[in-house]
Amino acid sequence: MRIEIFGIVLAACVASCLAKCQRKEGDIAESYICEGISSLTELNVIPTLAQKITILNSKIPSLPADSFTRFSGTLNYLNITHSELEKIEDNAFARLSLLHELILDYNRIAEIRTDWIKDLRNLKVLRVWHNHIKLIEPEVFAHLPNLELLDIAYNQIDHCTPLEQLEKLDNLEIFYVTGNPWPLRCRPPVVFHLEHNHVQFIHNWGNDHILIEECLAHEFGAKWDDQILYKCVANHLGKLSVPPIVPAH
Asked: Is-above-0.70 flag for pTM?
């Protein structure tokens, strides 16, 4: 009898130790961490009442439609980091109306599309830094009225984000754009808009936007020719970097 009980306990222990999804101890909320998974079916061990799910160091190249619908009644935090995520299908986050934080850092995502963000109207934090993002569909911002933090740092966004779309983020408090090759001419109006609305704007532009405005105002052709604008700003930066000449006595 004792041997049978020992066998049952041992089997339970082994199953628990081998499980790649574990409950996070010490967290008041129903929180689970999955590491090293290669299929979303491995989330089946997580109760439907989970409030927080973190997936780390895994191989999840795509998220199909309704990937997390089973948790729609309680899930408010979803983190998929360092998991080789590349493709997010339409409605991948369907019915996650309670989700407040979505973190997709260090993956291979190439775009943020309206069809997978549209059900996240209560989202407050969206972090997608260190991906391969080149495109954010303009309509995305209209579906994120409660967003407070947007982090798109270290991606490949090389086009201006339409100001009229940014204006739809009424509750935005912090915006990270460091490491994106934004065109020079779109920087001043974005900086002005965000500063005017008291948004903390994290970038690596220094005070370049002031030089850009100077060039746009006074350098002939800068308003319509990017090469002229870039050359003008570079010339100003070169002059600023030269140490002042001290007259000889």
From this structure: yes
